[in-house]
Amino acid sequence: MPKILIVDDEKIFRKGLRAMITSLDPEWEIVGDASDGYEALDRAEMLQPDVILTDIRMPRMDGIALQRVVKERFPQMECIVVSGYEDFTYALQSMRYGAKDYLMKPVERSELGRILGKLKEETAKRDKASAPRFDQEENELIRRHVSESVIAGLMRGMVQQHHVDLLRKIGVDFDQPYYCCFLIKLDKGSIGSDRYLKADPSLFQLYIRQFVQEMVNKRMKGYSLVLSDSEVAAIVNLSSNDSRSLVELAESIRRQITSLSNLTVTIGVGRVAEGVNSISESYRDAEISLLYRLIVGGDKVLHYEALRRDHDLYLEVDTESWGAMERAVLEGRAEEAASRVESEIGGLCQQATSPELVYQKICKLLIHFYESAEKLNLSKAWLGERDIRSLIFDICSITSSEELKAECRELLTGLARCIADSRREIEHDPVEQALQYLAAHFHKPLTLNEVAGQVHLNPAYFSTLFKQRTGTTFVERLTAIRIEEAKRRLMDTDDKIAAIADETGFPNLRHFYRVFKREAKLSPKDFRRRFRKEETGAASEPAGRIGRI
C-alpha cells in the first residue's frame, strides 16, 4: 500500500485533501500531515512516505526549500507540489528540482486521481526493483561518505594529492590550481529558540548545505558538507586567485538564504590557497574569520584578508608595551608573560571608556593568540577540550577586573608554557630546528649548507630529509617564508618596496620582483594596491603586530 504525507499551512486544506484522497483511492495510506517544511522533514524521517504532497507557499520553510532537502536526504521519495495560479513560476521551479507533478488550486478531483493513479503504478514497479535500487542507493551513500571524509581531511591538512585523485575517480573533480574554504554558520537568533528546539538541527544544515552546493555549482567547482549542527563547510576550486569573485559568491549565498528561508548565516572566507597542501591554511583562515562574528555580529561575510586590513578591528594600544607582552608569550617566557599580561589588562580596564570596549579588545587579543597557536599546531595543547568561542563567551561574562586579569593571565601564561614545552620537545628534531632557524633568520642570505651545519647534518642528507618531512625543498620553503613576510609588510606597513625586499632576504630588487610575481601572481606594487586600503595624507608610522589585531 503506497504511503503519502500531506503538507500545507492551512489545516482546512489538509483535511480536504485527506478526504479527497481517501474517496478517490482507499489503497493510499495517508500516514500524516504537516503545517510547514520543517515539520514535514521530521514526519518524513519517521514515517518514510512514498510521496509528499506539498503546498508551495508556507511559513518557515516553503515547498521549494522542502524539496531541496528531501532530494538530498530522502532521494527515494517523490514530491507533488500544489500552487495557486499566481505561483505558477514557483511550480515550474519545483519541476526543475525533481517534483513528479503539480496541481493547481483549487485541486480538482479528476486531476488528483490521475496523478495518484500514475504514482501508484510507478511505486509498484519501483518496489519490484527494490533490491537493485537499494544497491544503487547504497553505492551513492558510500560515495558521499568517502567524498566527505576526504574533503574534511583536506581542510584539516590530513590528506595529500593522491586522495584528490581518489575523489576524481568517484566524480568530484578538482582540476584547478587554486582553492578557498568557506565556513557557513547558522545564526540561531534568526530562527528563534522555539523553532530551533522543535526541529532537528541537522535539517537546517542539510538545507544550507544543499543550497550552498547549488550556488557553487552555478559559478565554479566545489564541494560542501555539514560539519556540525551549526556549521557547513565548502571548498571552492578555481582557476585564479581572484578573491573578489569568492566574496561575491559568499555574499550571494548569504542574501539568497535569507531571501528564500528567513534564516540568516555568517560566512567566514579564507584566503585563496595554491595547491592541495595549502587547503588547510585557507580553512584555518575561515575559522579565524568566523570568530570575528563574536565582535562584529552575524549575518555578514567575514573575509580573512579584509579583516586584516580593517583598521576598525585593530587594537589601538601602546604597541611597544603590548608588543613586549606578545614576545614574552610567543617566546615561551611564562613568568614574564604573566606580569606583562596582568599589567596590560589592568591598564586596559582602567583606561577604557566602556565595558564593551574592554571585552572587544580582549576578544581580539585572544583571537590573535589563538591564530598564533593554530600556526604552531598548539591550540589543542593550549585549550584542551575548550572551544575558543565558548572560551570568549566565558571571558565576556566576567564583570570583575581582578577576575578578568587573572583569567587572561592564566590563559596566556598557559600558551607560553605550551610553546616552551614544544620547543624543548623539538630540540632533538633537526628538521624542526631548521624550520625555526629559517623563521628567525630568513632575512639573511641563508644557504642549505649553512642551515645543515646548524643542525649538524651532512648537506646532502639534510636536503633529502627536509624534502621528505616537509614536502618542499629547502629553497622552496625559504622562498615561501620570505614572500609571506613580504606580503604582510606590503599590507600592514607603508615601507618602501626596496626596503621590504632587502629586509626579507632579497638584496637584489629585480630578483625580488621576479620571485614575488611568480609566487603571488601580482607585482609587489599591484599586490599592495589590491589588498590594502588606500591611505590618504602622509604615511603614518607602521604599527606593531599586536597593535593591529
Explain what this protein looks like in three dimensions:
The chain is α/β, with parallel strands linked by helices and 549 residues long. It folds into 4 domains: 3-128, Response regulator (Rossmann fold, 3-Layer(aba) Sandwich); 137-305, Reverse transcriptase/Diguanylate cyclase domain (Alpha-Beta Plaits); 313-425; 430-548, Arc Repressor Mutant, subunit A, CATH 1.10.10.60. It contains 26 helices and 11 strands. The strands form 2 sheets. Strands 6, 7, 8, 9, 10 and 11 form a 6-stranded mixed sheet that branches. Strand 1 (3-7), helix 1 (11-24) and strand 2 form a beta-alpha-beta unit. Helix 2 packs parallel to helix 3.
CA-atom Rg in angstroms: 28 Å
Largest sheet: number of strands, sense, barrel closure: 6 strands, mixed
CATH superfamily of the largest domain: Reverse transcriptase/Diguanylate cyclase domain
The number of helical elements comes to: 26
Average pLDDT: 82
Percentage beta strand: 5-15%
**CATH A-level architecture of the largest domain:** 2-Layer Sandwich
What is the domain tally? 4
Structural class, from secondary structure content?
alpha/beta
Q: State the shape.
A: elongated
Low-confidence stretches: 533-549
Q: What fold name stands as the CATH topology of the largest domain?
A: Alpha-Beta Plaits
Report how far apart the termini are: 64 Å
CATH class of the largest domain: Alpha Beta
Helicity range: 55-70%
Number of strand elements: 11
